[in-house]
Specification:
AAA ATPase; Hybrid_Histidine_Kinase; 15 strands; three-stranded antiparallel beta sheet; single chain; AAA_16
Length: 1370
């Protein structure tokens, strides 16, 4: 007999079409054509359905014999629906009768209850109904069952036009056939109705009967009542239904005569022939019910029907036999109905015959439960799954939610995530498939495998790159073009983390980085995080499907991954479109391994402060019912049959899914759970299982089971476990050759034992508990030696083959061993050198956390006296460790490292890097003046002294940089530049002297420090000195910045616009020639600031945005926030749409808060409040607590009070807001405060209005002349309309009305011409007030109306509403 469940009989198009015309001639039937379909007797339906399938498959070449047709998928599906309808009908009537009897026996006749006379009850219980049923109890019920099928009306054009009138039947043409005939009618009475019906059909039927579209089936109502009289009647009813089902599923065959006789069990009919067929199972399992399964339905089995179906019918037929006393016989019709429902809903589980060859050879494969059809079977987590899906839907629609699944190890977290992935994407069997509703990416953290930066996240996106490369070429091209356009050469950093990205970029993209310092990033970690964010933004913009990122085992998340994940979730690209980010992140985490200080907890808490909700899902042990569902699905047996086994498993495992899985595998190995050849299904020995003694925890249970493994398998698993939960096969093969120990063959045995899996070129532990057990098999005192040995073996290969990835893996293994595993000082030096190389590789991959770990470990392997014996190695390890500590904000450790370097370094040159880091540390710590002191002293030591005053002078050293010294340096620089052409400068040699390169870096840093403390008059000397060094020693990466700052000073301070702008453009050209991108953001920023004074204001905005991108690419987030501030400010003053600007400003605030840039936030918040007031939104709170990088919270007002430039900007914005809303008293007060601070910040303030407001308090013609001159000398485009409007207001105040009228109109025309819609609106409003105050209301209405229109165009809803009110009031 075939193992498969169904014989699929279909047409060529995959369907089984019903053809009533082929059947009607040979089938006598009673039918009711109505709107609800057709009713037909069961016997007639069986014949009709069989004939329909036979005729539909005749032309396909399939075997269409009656027996094969009865086993087809289509027929079985219909038959199951009929059987379930009958059982459901009996259950409904039985339940109703119980309620009625209960009400009659127990009710008091009040409260709406039903009260029955006892004599009536006795008549029901033992009356003629029961006697009649007892007389019929062995008869087949098929003649009393009716099936309702589908019926479709033929289209008019399908009828043959033979000249006769066609009769179209509707529900009004005849009475519908009752589903429940009267008690007195017999089934044959239906023939009368059929005859009446046929008389209406003489003109030809307008219907086609669809026998394979079964809607329901019903049993005659009088029989149903009789079958529910008492328990005995129900028992006989089950038996009779079994006989009926036999006929139904066999395609019309009758139950053999010897089966069904009271007192004769199927054991007697089996005889010795059946007994000889039993296999080697224990006699305890050879129960009478099991034997009856063989005999009662032997004809059904010979047809090839599923074993589960045969067993069900056997248990029904044998229910009345005195010998059938097993647990498997049906006690109630409810059990029968539930079993039928399961067969209908999950035929792939409950109607799938056990593959005996596979089960006997491979055994119980728990790792692939439910894998036959690609589905992930799910047990008892429906509520949690629904919660996760709801979180997902909210996230992809609003973009502000993540989810975390918590629970102990083995509780089912991965199963829940897999089911979610299957439901919301097209993911199957752990692979990503295109075309679903979402793209699912997954990664996993590993406690012992953190040797690659962002490995869990980068591997997930690397998998996406592999998927993307297989999609249509247009999508690949779109992503490739966007990546090359937006990321440029920086994309090489991403390729290092995601090698499969090469497949998208193509061969023409150069993605190699041979020198870890060649890129010159300000902060390589921040740069890589930004590039990752950009990558995510690009792929989200290029695809319609949501992107889902899942990370498992987040309890082992590393600091670098936390920072990256946090930025991906919080920091969408500022220049991204308004398209909704369809992105969702969720993870799994062991709840007993995280606390309030865990990096994951802190990250989620941080997300909450930014308005990103976290949905927490806690998983607990499974219930008894869920355990039974799991066992039932695993064994492909109905839950009614597996309940005894499930109860035992639940008791022993307390409902832990993984524990149950491991215990079932162990039961199979002990032959307590095995496939029965006789019964073709799984069977078990309940008593022996119940008597087993097993540990309470799954960890102890697995450890015990490991001791039963062959020694070589256990040894190989222990080696594998040292490298983490998954290891590449190539690495194992390399290690096997190096340590001369068999590994591959024993691990293949472990695969067969369902301990590890072998896929995608790697070995994987099937569960982290298995990994932990294998690792625990190594004694704690021996683990360090194992790690050290394996690391050394792989390290030798990595060095020989120059394999960076293998080197990092090898050194990580060595460091797990630690200094205690080192045998002598020579080996310690060799290991320290390997750590140095590994740390450099980690820095190249922008993982400074990992690099710092390598450098620290390298230092730990050095013995006492290493500064004398291994000076070069020690200096390099300490310098690089200090650099990493600075990047990682580990300031305490950094100070220790710097002290060591400054103490043991042999010369000044060896101390330079430590000095530079120390200066940066002082700046970050707020000790700016000390940083300035050290910088000036270091410059003097490098031969680039700015002032001859000794650095230990107690007052501020920059006070000794006098105006005369500055003038001297500036004049010297001007003279030298005048001698050189642009062509000469563009072809200048590259600076190679390390001391001069460092001097350039110190001068650039000094420029920032002095600007920060407000000593702007001193800045020109630093710029002059940088250019002088450049002209003498060659171009450095900072030389373009010096030229741009030189031009900037000429434009803004000296007002030499032509010369200054020339050097700005020269600096931009030099920047493009430089191989370093580290300082692009500063160069572009100062260029934009200069352009603001020379060219149309609108053009500067895009340049500030370019500076923002360049800053983020280099990791200079402080500069990026400064650029973002100016970008939004320029957008406001240039008249960009306020609604879009408000969104941009909110995003900027979010970024400033994320990067803890308190200074820029204090500048920016007042701008945001002003814009929100203009667009009519509720303003932000006046005081916002700002958190610094150290975690301290500061008040916004306190920060502004301490920084004059911040207070100046605050007063200026408050002045403008009060003026624009005509709050003149407040505007006057703010103006007074602005000018009281102005002299303290000579080089600060708004880019245009600083120069205007500098003279605005002077009376008379002097200020007018100055403003007009400024408008002519600088940007006419930007300042002309402002000058005209200011002149119009002046003429209005002087009561020169005729001149004022012309100037107002000129200001409006100029604003429109130069695309300042904001100032066009303001000019119209001021003109309206001018005409209103001079008594010309009609004109004022026109100008106010124009102002309203332009304010609305700008997005200033509040101002537009004010102008509208003015018009209505006039």
């Amino acid at each position: 007999m075939a193992t498969s469940t169904y014989h699929c009989i279909e047409d060529d198009d995959g369907t089984a079409a019903a053809n009533s015309n082929d059947v009607a001639a040979s089938t006598a039937l009673a039918a009711d054509y109505s709107g609800d379909g057709m009713i037909i007797g069961l016997n007639a339906w069986i014949d009709a359905a069989i004939e329909t399938l036979k005729s539909s498959t005749a032309s396909t070449g399939h075997n269409n014999q009656r027996n094969n047709v009865a086993c087809s998928r289509q027929y079985l599906s219909c038959a199951l629906k009929i059987a379930h309808s009958l059982a459901d009908q009996l259950c409904a009537v039985d339940e109703k009768k119980k309620v009625t009897l209960s009400a009659g026996l127990d009710g008091d006749g009040e409260g709406g209850g039903i009260s029955l006379d006892p004599s009536i009850i006795n008549e029901i219980m033992a009356g003629p109904h029961q006697r009649r049923w007892q007389q019929r109890k062995y008869e087949s019920l098929a003649h009393s069952i009716y099936v309702r099928c589908g019926a479709n009306v033929l289209a008019q054009e399908e009828k043959k036009d033979d000249g006769s009138r066609a009769t179209t039947l509707t529900s009004n043409d005849l009475e519908p056939l009752p589903l429940h005939p009267d008690e007195s009618s017999e089934p044959n009475d239906l023939g009368i109705l059929a005859q009446q019906l046929s008389s209406l059909l003489e003109g030809g039927s307008d219907h086609i009967i669809e026998y394979l579209k079964v809607r329901c089936a019903t049993l005659r109502e009088d029989l149903v009542r009789d079958m529910c009289i008492d328990d005995d009647a129900r028992m006989v009813a089950i038996h009779s239904l079994g006989a009926t089902f036999f006929q139904l599923f066999s395609g019309g065959k009758q139950v053999p005569e010897q089966v069904g006789t009271v007192g004769q069990s199927s054991v007697e009919m089996l005889g010795t022939e059946g007994a000889d067929r039993l296999d080697h199972m224990s006699k305890k399992t050879q129960r009478s019910t099991q034997s009856s399964t063989v005999s009662s339905v032997e004809p059904l089995k010979s047809l090839g029907l599923p074993t589960a179906l045969c067993d069900m019918i056997s248990n029904m037929i044998d229910r009345t036999n005195e010998g059938a006393t097993g647990d498997e016989s049906y006690e109630t019709v409810t059990d029968l109905r539930d079993d039928l429902r399961l067969m209908m809903d999950s035929p792939e589980v409950y109607l799938q015959d056990l593959d005996m060859n596979h089960a006997s050879t491979v055994g119980l494969q728990m790792g692939s439960i439910g894998g036959k059809d690609g589905r992930t079977y799910f047990y008892g987590r429906e509520l949690e799954l629904a919660t996760l899906k709801e979180s997902y839907q909210r996230s992809v629609s609003s973009g502000c939610e993540v989810a975390m699944i918590y629970g102990s190890s083995g509780i089912g977290k991965s199963m829940l995530s897999n089911k979610f992935a299957e439901d919301v994407t097209s993911r199957r069997d752990g692979h990503i498939h295109d075309g679903g509703s979402g793209v699912f990416l997954s990664g996993s953290f590993d406690k012992l495998q953190q040797s690659q930066p962002f490995h869990a996240i980068s591997s997930a996106f690397d998998e996406y790159c592999t998927l993307l490369s297989t999609r249509d070429e247009s999508t690949v091209e779109m992503v490739s073009t966007a990546l090359k356009r937006d990321l440029g050469d920086e994309i090489s950093s991403l390729v290092t983390a995601m090698p499969s990205l090469r497949g998208i970029l193509g061969n023409d993209c150069v993605c190699d980085q041979n020198d870890e310092n060649s890129d010159g990033a300000v902060d390589a970690q921040k740069r890589l995080r930004y590039l990752f964010c950009q990558f995510v933004e690009i792929i989200l913009a290029c695809q319609e499907e949501p992107l889902i990122l899942f990370l498992d085992d987040c309890q082992w998340i590393d600091a670098a991954s936390v920072a990256l994940l946090n930025q991906i979730l919080m920091m969408p690209n500022k220049s991204a479109s308004n398209k909704q980010r369809r992105f969702f992140f969720f993870g799994c985490c062991r709840d007993d391994e995280v606390n309030e200080e865990h990096p994951l907890t802190l990250m989620l808490s941080s997300l909450e402060t930014f308005g990103t909700k976290t949905t927490n899902i806690m998983l607990t042990s499974m219930s008894k019912e869920t355990v039974n569902e799991m066992v039932s699905t695993t064994l492909s047996l109905l839950p009614r049959l597996t309940r005894p086994l499930a109860d035992i498993l639940y008791h022993k495992t307390k409902g832990g899914p993984f524990f149950i899985k491991q215990l079932m595998i162990d039961l199979y190995k002990r032959r307590l759970l095995y496939p029965s050849l006789t019964h073709r299904r799984w069977v078990w020995e309940s008593d022996n299982i119940r008597g087993m003694e097993i540990p309470d925890s799954v960890a102890s249970f697995i450890m015990n089971s490991f001791h039963c493994l062959p020694p070589d398998v256990l040894s190989a698993l222990s080696v594998l476990s040292c490298f983490g939960a998954s290891v590449s096969i190539s690495l194992i093969e390399t290690l096997e050759a190096e340590i001369q120990t068999p590994l591959m063959a024993p691990l293949d045995t472990a695969v067969a034992e369902s301990i590890v899996d072998k896929r995608k070129g790697a070995f994987y532990f099937l569960h982290d508990k298995l990994h932990e057990a294998a690792y625990g098999a190594i004694g704690s005192e021996q683990r360090c030696l194992h790690h050290f040995r394996y690391g050394l073996a792989l390290g030798n290969v990595a060095v020989k083959e120059r394999d960076d990835v293998l080197l990092i893996t090898a050194v990580s293994q060595i460091n797990h061993g630690g200094p205690q595993a080192v045998v002598d000082s020579e080996q310690g030096v060799a290991v320290a050198s390997m750590n140095l190389d590994a740390g450099k590789k980690a820095m190249k991959m922008s993982d400074f956390f990992l690099a710092h770990s390598f450098f620290d470990h390298g230092i730990s392997y050095l013995r006492r006296g290493h500064w004398e014996q291994q000076y070069d190695l020690s200096l390099e390890l300490f310098n690089l460790a200090a650099k990493c500590a600075l990047m990682n904000a580990e300031h305490d450790h950094l100070e220790i490292l710097i002290q060591q370097i400054m103490h043991y370094a042999k010369c000044f040159e060896d101390k330079c890097q430590a000095i530079s880091i120390s200066i940066t540390l002082h700046l970050l710590s707020g000790n700016v003046l000390e940083g300035v002191k050290i910088t000036l002293s270091t410059l003097a030591s490098l031969g680039e002294e700015l002032s001859r005053s000794p650095w230990w002078v107690p007052q501020l050293v920059i006070d000794h940089i006098t105006p005369s010294v500055i003038k001297q340096h500036w004049s010297k620089t001007e003279a030298k530049l005048a001698e050189l052409s642009d062509e000469t400068l563009l072809s200048y040699p590259v600076m190679v002297d390390p001391s001069k390169i460092m001097a350039m870096e110190l001068l650039a840093q000094l420029y920032e420090l002095v600007a920060f403390v407000g000593e702007h008059t001193k800045l020109p000397i630093f710029v002059s000195k940088m250019i002088q060094i450049t002209l003498k020693h060659g171009m450095s990466p900072l030389s373009p910045l010096a030229f741009v700052q030189y031009g900037n000073y000429n434009v803004i301070i000296r007002r030499n616009y032509e010369v200054g702008y020339h050097y700005v453009k020269l600096g931009l050209t030099l920047m493009k020639q430089s191989p370093s991108r580290a300082h692009d953001c500063q160069i572009i920023f100062h260029s934009a600031y200069t352009r603001l004074h020379v060219e149309p204001m609108q053009t500067a905005g895009e340049l500030f945005l370019d500076a923002f991108k360049a800053a983020m690419k280099s990791g200079a987030t402080r500069y990026a926030m400064k650029c973002a501030y100016f970008y939004d400010a320029i957008c406001f003053w240039s008249g960009a749409n306020l609604e879009e600007l408000a969104r941009s400003m909110k995003e900027t605030i979010k970024q400033m808060k994320f990067h803890k840039n308190l200074l820029m936030m204090s500048f920016f918040l007042q701008n945001v409040r002003m814009v929100l007031r203009m667009v009519g939104e509720s303003a932000m709170p006046p005081q916002i607590g700002l958190m610094s990088a150290s975690g301290d919270t500061h008040n916004e007002e306190d920060i502004a009070d301490k920084i004059p430039a911040a207070m100046l900007g605050k007063h200026f914005n408050e002045f403008y807001e009060a003026y624009i809303f005509r709050e003149f008293d407040k505007a006057t007060d703010c103006a007074d405060k602005f000018f009281s601070l102005h002299n303290l910040t000579k080089f600060s303030g708004s880019p245009m209005y600083h120069r205007i407001f500098e003279k605005v308090d002077s009376k008379g013609d002097e200020s007018k002349v100055y403003i007009e001159k400024l408008a002519v000398l600088s940007s006419t485009w930007t300042l002309q309309n402002k000058t005209l409007l200011l002149q119009a207001e002046g003429q209005f105040s002087a009561r020169n009305f005729e001149a004022a009228e012309k100037l107002y109109d000129d200001a409006i025309v100029s604003s429109k011409k130069h695309k300042f819609v904001n100032e066009e609106a303001l000019a119209n409003e001021l003109a309206g007030h001018f005409y209103l105050d001079t008594g010309r209301k009609d004109k004022s209405v026109r100008y106010f109306s124009q102002a309203e229109e332009k304010y609305r165009e700008w997005g200033a809803v509040a101002k537009a509403n004010f102008c509208e009110w003015l018009v209505m009031d006039i």
